[in-house]
Amino acid sequence: MYISQLFIPITKNLPSEAKIKSHQLMLRAGMIKQSAAGIYSWLPLGFKVMKKIEQIVREEQNNIGAQEMLMPTIQSADIWKESGRYEDYGQEMLRIKDRQGREMLYGPTNEELITEIFRSSVKSYKSLPQLLYHIQWKFRDEIRPRFGVMRCREFFMKDAYSFDQDEQSAKKSYNKMFFSYLKTFKRMGLNAIPMAADTGPIGGDLSHEFIIIAETGESKIFLDKRIFEINLEKYNFSEESLERMRNEFSSYYAVTDEKFNQKEFNQKVEKKNQFTTNGIEVGHIFYFGDKYSKPLNCSFDNQDGKKSTVKMGSYGIGVSRLVGALIEAFYIDGRMKWPRSVSPFDVVIIPSINKNNKENLEKSKRIYDELKKQNIDVLLDDTDENLSSKFMKHDLIGIPFQIIVGSKSAEEKFEFKEVNMKSEIIDLKRIKQKLQK
Ligand code: 5CA
Q1: Distance from Cα 209 to the centre of ligand 1, integer Å
Q2: Does 279 contact ligand 1 (Cβ within 6 A)?
Q3: pTM for this one?
Q4: 280 Cα: distance to centroid of ligand 1 (angstroms)
Q5: How far is the CA of 394 from the centre of ligand 1 (A)?
Q6: Phi and psi dihedrals of 94, rounded to 5?
Q7: Residues 166-192: tens digit of each pLDDT
Q8: Is the CB of 195 under 6 A from ligand 1?
Q9: Where are the beta strands (DSSP E) in 125-213?
Q10: Residue 317: pLDDT above 90?
Q11: Given pLDDT bands bounded at 50, 70 and 90, which one contains residue 325?
Q12: Pocket test for ligand 1, best of 288, 321, 323, 328 (most atoms within 8 A of CB)
């Protein structure tokens, strides 16, 4: 893509409510535009990043055998009345009436809807276990939407639901998802820490939040810092390995302020290992047994020919929140550097261009064509702004690799730079190798 053709409304004017860096950067770099409080349009650059995150989430869900589907955003109130959550959910739920006067709502989550789908089709233990997910918009009428895409009213979420015969098998599904989440976040360059959590309006008795460290995070976290040293490489998806992985994580204290207790912290963690900071919740998983399957009557015939209720869990990842969370994690000293796996482009070519000299632009176009042929997603800054304003712009856009075609580039060698590293003068062949994924 040539930047002159990209719809990227870069702006300097920030509204006063943009207090944290991810919110500021997303507005400045033209990634999003607010359309109402806590509701955003995703412009091409922001949308591209979100799609990359979505794809990583999708691949990792598919890897553990979860099946993708798509449920609607609008749901009927009836099933929520059956589960008893229609009243409980309160004002966070956006309630709507259709032209017939039927009560509808914009789904804040999908436990009821998926249970209703499941109960009408699954009759026997032979069809269990099952793991289903979708990636869909949700709406929660938050009292105080803030921090841009981090706490908004409409947001994009991956939600998965597990269905098992009994508690033991359901815990296996939970552990599988637990490990899969760690791998998913790792692919985005994030070290997410699982923390025992309260279950809130979703319910149940077992739950973990996955939190990444960020000063601006809304959750205060308390942990034994040795938890950072856990090596995921030594684990796999076998039942026994998952069990050991869970045990290793639970052996270290790691909680958010909801569950924090100073006395316990001092007892369980030596002073030198105590670590207190802020974090962003990027995922949350729940095991709630028959909380929904019972009132919604989702049962099956077990091996003994008796009726039994399905045991369920649900597993969320904040796909749109992750765009902001990644910026909080990687935006340092006014400069953004996306991890390669989610960067909007693989590399940007920045030629130094002036009115009398279009040679650098011509050279850049040739590099562009070469890289395109190799399936490298490249952005060419073909504007005639001076180099220093181009650099400032690319500090915002955050593409991790730059090819600078200017005074340092000789004949067929070019200045190649990984952001925040020293540049080197190399030929196109070397550049291609460096960009190989
Ligand atoms: N049904 C369960 C699991 S699917 C559920 O809804 N869990 S949740 O409430 O914890 O949400 C899952 C994830 O969505 C959170 O971890 C968070 O990353 C994201 N999320 C929740 N609320 C918002 C919000 N207001 N704005 C942006 N992202 C949000």
Answers
A1: 10
A2: no
A3: 0.97
A4: 11
A5: 31
A6: -85, 110
A7: 999 999 999 999 999 999 999 999 999
A8: no
A9: 130-139, 154-164, 193-196, 206-213
A10: yes
A11: very high
A12: 321
Strand bridging mode 424-427 / 32-36: unpaired
Share of the chain above pLDDT 90, in %: 90
Query: Mean pLDDT over residues 70-75, rounded?
Result: 98
* CA–CA separation, 437 and 227 (whole Å): 30
Alpha-carbon dihedral 235, 240, 246, 249, rounded to 10 degrees? -50
Interior/surface letters 89-115, b for 16+ CB within 10 angstroms, e for the rest: beeebbeeeeeeeeeebbbbbbbbbbb
The CA distances from residue 37 to 30, 32, 80, 97, 104, in Å, are 17, 13, 26, 22, 22
Distance 197 CA to ligand 1 centre (A): 13
Joined together, the tokens standing for residue 139 give 């709406």
Whether 431 has a pLDDT exceeding 90, the answer reads yes
Atom of ligand 1 nearest to the CA of 210: 16
pLDDT of residue 407: 82
Q: Which residues contact 153 (CB under 8 A, 6 or more apart)?
A: 37, 38, 39, 139, 140, 141, 142, 145
